[in-house]
Amino acid sequence: MPKVTLKVIANTLGISTATVSKALKNYADINLETKRKVQELAKKLNYTPNAFAVSLRMKESKTIGVIIPTMVHFFFSNVLDGILKEAESKDYMVFIMQSNENDKLEKKQVDLLLSKGVDGIIVSLSNITKDLTHLNKIIENNVPLILVDKIAKTINCTKVVIDDRKAAYDAVSYLIKKGYKRIAHFRGGLNPQNSVDRFLGYKSALLDHNIKFDPKLVYLCDNNSDYSDGFESAEKLLQDHGENVDAIFTITDLIAIGALNYFNENNIKVPEQIAIFGFSNWFMTKITTPSLSTVEQNGYKMGEITARTLFQEIDDLHKDIPIKHQKIIVDTELIIRNSC
Amino acid sequence: MPKVTLKVIANTLGISTATVSKALKNYADINLETKRKVQELAKKLNYTPNAFAVSLRMKESKTIGVIIPTMVHFFFSNVLDGILKEAESKDYMVFIMQSNENDKLEKKQVDLLLSKGVDGIIVSLSNITKDLTHLNKIIENNVPLILVDKIAKTINCTKVVIDDRKAAYDAVSYLIKKGYKRIAHFRGGLNPQNSVDRFLGYKSALLDHNIKFDPKLVYLCDNNSDYSDGFESAEKLLQDHGENVDAIFTITDLIAIGALNYFNENNIKVPEQIAIFGFSNWFMTKITTPSLSTVEQNGYKMGEITARTLFQEIDDLHKDIPIKHQKIIVDTELIIRNSC
DNA sequence: TTGTATGCGTTATCAC
DNA sequence: GTGATAACGCATACAA
């Protein structure tokens, strides 16, 4: 914390701190000459206001908090990247916390953030979060909250998402149009909304194209060790169905890559013997052999939009403008490469 | 910010705020019964101290700042992961900022962090940072500073690094012992210390094994687009040397993967025709074809140690214990896979 | 054992 | 145009 305060400027200039404060803020009712002197000295002494005092006085901290499951993750680190870039441009600082897919921790982190007096909070929920009282607590405290990607439908706040169901529908429809008929799905856990929606998209794409939905072709990958989940499920898939399956739509690129590597190691040709379609467009998918078709899920853009909207809501709150919660849907896009 | 203050508790209990304050902190000179009542009410009202007031009063914020080049990066996100886990356990919050390899931005971020009154700062320098006045400013302000991985030798503070030179030396020596003789090096920029040290390690490994150092086998990859850097340098390498090169040691896994993909696409067998050795042990290196030999550079552990040491220095500063700057070297390890 | 008073650095109100 | 003064919420030295 800088140690040159209003008082030292006031004293060396022989005026009051009140005048100094106003002079620095260019108030209209201050003599031009005094202003000049004050601003000059302030610059010379390298004055910066004490952030704690300002926050205490103004009840705002120019600080937001972000809780995500983990940042060692292509998608989430891109979301953070977008948030940080936007915060940078608006002079906000951001506290980042990882819930590590632990709902208890997530709760505790909300309390911490609240107690630190952040002006707003962004959350991407852990996979196992079911009790939502911590989110409601944020809202009750009148702190703007935005959920991004891993959301809870019932919470009354702005949400930034993709249309998971549509994206999955499009991907599976693409596979069908390419001629694949026995399409398996490596799905995520039963709780997360994304996982549910992508599964539903898969299912309705099949039905809409007159392909019977076969629950035996759906494999659950919820060990949070995505790569091995994919690898092992691929093995099981072949044991269970042998040649009687010609494509897989996976909920995540990492799971897709796990499966791909299982096939590569076992000399099963992708896409000739089995096609794969991933989800998220992780950097890696460009450079696997074969490169992986996937769904672009623009994490950076989602982060940017989330932060921008949050700052808007903070402003509105400050100006007593009633804030209307939105559901913002960010576009996705099929990225077709060589795995199907 | 919570709105139940000491005063609220004091008033409803008909006692003074001083007593409440002390009761909550379990001071010895407070009547047990009063303590009980105060603590009970505090819990009931869900009291949390106003962080701004506490910080203003105590001149410490239980907050640290971290500046890294980018977080969309396997190594750096692991460093952050380690920092966050450690901070979590010590009840510190952390501001994270990305310099995006921009030295001007890095400077500005230091000022921001300082003005926010963080208790300590961790920096991993941008590749182009040369002027170090911002780092010295941190030190002058008496704020503990630790540099991690991307350090500047001349700054007088604690540093957490790996022994880049030795790690590179070991990797290249391994290649030599495996029988490779014409070993190229895809190096990083000329400024960063890591880049210099890994190059020097490469060079001395050659010399120590009586292999002539050939500057024509060294390719500069400093476009910060590591993958394409590797891809393109691989192409150039073959144009320049054809069969007269049998291995590459790259400064980074991503560059190695770029090269690997160039070879894969052009039907050049790795490692039969050319071997590759990477650096960092990114997750990806496990799952390329062939899998990539590399150097384990434990980012998580480096982050953990960095944060732990920083908190120690903050404590010491607080207790007026003179802090002695250390250079902490985290172990590396060769990870041998199928690319050499 | 408790309460009073003061100060941390700002900003804002209101006299002058 | 300017300057006391109070207030934000807390912690503490000191008085009671």
Strand order of the largest sheet of chain A: 2-1-3-4-5-11
Strand proportion of chain A: 15-25%
- Oligomeric organization of the protein chains: homodimer
Largest sheet of chain A: 6 strands, parallel
The CATH architecture assignment of the largest domain in chain A turns out to be 3-Layer(aba) Sandwich
Q: Would you tell me the overall average pLDDT of chain A? A: 96
Overall structural class of chain A, as computed from helix and strand content, comes to alpha/beta
Most extensive interface, chain pair and sizes: A-B, 48 and 48 residues
Into how many domains do the coordinates of chain A divide? 3
Shape of chain A: elongated
Please give the CATH class of the largest domain in chain A: Alpha Beta
The H/E string of chain A reads HHHHEHEHEHEEHEHEHEHEEHEE
Helix content of chain A: 40-55%
Number of strands of chain A: 12
Number of helices of chain A: 12
Straight-line N-to-C gap of chain A: 58 Å
